[in-house]
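Reopening this one. Same input as before:
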Amino acid sequence: MSRRMIPTATYRIQFRNGMTFDRAVALVPYLKRLGTSHLYASPIFTATTGSTHGYDVTDANEIDPAIGGREGFDRMVKALKAEDLGLILDIVPNHMAASLENPWWRDVIEHGEKSRYARHFDIDWSRRLTLPFLGDTFEAVLEAGEIALKHDPKTSKPALAYFDTFYPLSPETYLGSETGLLQITDKAVIADLHDRQPYRLMSWRDASRDLSYRRFFEITGLAGIRVEDDDVFDDTHRLILELARSGDVDGLRVDHIDGLADPKAYLERLRQEAGQDCYITVEKILGEEEDLAPDWPVSGTTGYEFIATLSDALVDGERLPQLHAAYATSTGASPDMADELRAAKLLMVDNNFAGEVATLVKLAESIHEERPEAASVASGAIRAGLRELLVAFPVYRTYGTADGMPPEGRQMLEKVATDIRRSKTTADLSALPFLAKILNGDLAPQLSHKASTFRTRFQQLTGPLMAKSVEDTLFFRHHALIALNEVGAEPLPREFSLDRFHEQMIERQKRQPDALSGTSTHDTKRGEDARARLYALSEAPKIWADAVERWRRTNSASVNHLDDGPAPEPAVEWMLYQALAGVWPADLTPDDAMGLAKLKERFQAYAEKAIREAKLRTNWADGKTDYEAAVKNYIHAMLSPKNDVFLVDFASTLRPFFRAGSVNSISQTIFKLTAPGVPDIYQGSETCDLSLVDPDNRREPDFESLSQQFSEAGELDTSSEEGWLSGHFKQQIIGKILKLRRTLPDLFRNGEYIPLEVNGVRAKNIVAFARHNDRHALLVVTPRHVLEALQDLASSRSAHWAATRVVLPPPLAERRYRDIFSGRIFDFSGDASVNWAFADHPFAVLLAE
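Same output, byte for byte:
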């Protein structure tokens, strides 16, 4: 890939919710001054009316008029090019909106399998298209008078009207009888007409068990599309490829690559059509010890694994077990996380994805019936074996194709099957060998088509099942340190070490030097600075645990005792206090009634989502109003200005964590900007990002203030504690390093990553590494675990680091270095004194002269 097309840094902007192309044009000078090379745009193609994110595309070949249309887009491109900035688009090849606003979907509803778009969507045409958008069964809503025959006001054609939604009738079912059709009120006649449609209206509650189309995760409003079909690829990528070939777009971010039937084949086609210079990354969550397929023609992932790796550098792995123990004591439970993961996956298999599992079982049974030479499998064994395979699967998916399973996929399946047999399960495993044959493609040629279909469906299910089990269930159930419950993180306990961080960065340089390195995204569970602050809790388990028990006693009168237990229960109380610690603005005082009210509104919305995602005492499908109300009332009382005893205690207890968190924030920012990968700045996260899970993290930042407060000139003055806590220094640091990245792109793209040994009194409190190539060298020295080492940010820092030194190997020793922030010159021989390097500020990025 052409070097000029690799970004040096990207800036993600969320369009919609008020953000338009013309407003983005006004931001271009700021993005240039900040030092980014590319604007990284959320989906811009026409989506459903009022869409807040753009992933519910209704027309892949039109730029959404709601955000400025093609003319506005062209103005933005022109403004970017004027400043020598590029553009990366987020594209959505896996799904489109299952909405009547989508002309393709509407055509499929109206004409069924005869529609020219019938094969564009991933629909099982062995039965009628299911439309799970009713509040109850069709029979119930018809009886209630909620379904009627009316003219569609947009098309003037007859339709089945459900409130303000008009489902078109197939012309074949009414041609020649339009005149009297709308006069029909007889429910039996309407029911008969409905039965003759190519679709079946049904309750949304039945979607998990009875859906005829592939959906995105559990979202029935997003229907899977079949880009593996050449015609579908052409129809859905016409505008995308036009923009890439014209030079208006320099890169593409592929959403949910694991949802596609054949990711590698898709990417090869995309690369061929978009050209070798197009920068392409994929949204892909890598499991423990899993690498991105080296034969995919992409620059890498969007960087979730980078976020997970940061915790190795910043979490206190030695004290973390004490925090887990304190959590167990506080909540009265010490769960086995492997068992908890299994339970979460079983919930998904047996309930949320029951329909998808049933389809696989039916298909496997059909294949088995066509193998007369094979030994029979006991009734229920296929489902039991499939259930165990799905639950035990350790990564998002394998990458088998119509030709079978590649060697690494076979090895994965063999390992999973072995692990299942060694487990304590009492399930009938007699069908496992047969299921492995289907997945591997070791069947007779006449069964290859059905086996390929099974393989594809299985692989398209394991990803959503893993995501919903881990990210959207398990991570909302266990809260010892919620900063670790992040997209891309592992659900099972592991060790955290600085050595592991360095190992991961070395591997990243080898395997994904051009991948995005993110710290916040529109999908992260909390903002990067909230996460950085919460990392510091691992340094003081007893202080935190004692504080939680004290706060629980203070707020005990607000706990509501329901029939099924206290609300909130101790585990949720722990979670609420920790989440509040992450989101609490550093400048919010306990007597600020307006500030508390604003925080409460955001926090209650977060809490509602958190307890619903946990799926323990309430959930999205069957919300328990008494429990949810009790949790919200607890938060209301907790954040009431009248609750001054708690509020004063909370704010004062957290102050040291605020300081330590701000140092962690600077360290992780410097890691992102200098370690292997392309740093991505999520909108607003260049200063303090204390956001919660979406939609909170998709709020628009105050771009005007961000632009006004940023200054490229002058020495970085870090003596003000307010500057640390507000994130102002973070923005200045980003600007300095991004300018350096644009000046020396080869150093950051191809330069060797060298972990550096640290000796002395505070060696454990330092992260040090270098980037080095034939012409340049960069030393990076940052602090970590500073809760005890650095209580006062505004005090003299150098004294804290006396007798701590960074060892410089031969390529780095005997050189003169310049601090890129202060301009101070250092002559280092065989080592570098941290005491000296931190003379002006407690971090150092030093460039060899």
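So the earlier flakiness isn't reproducible anymore. For the record, DSSP finds 28 helices and 29 strands in the chain.
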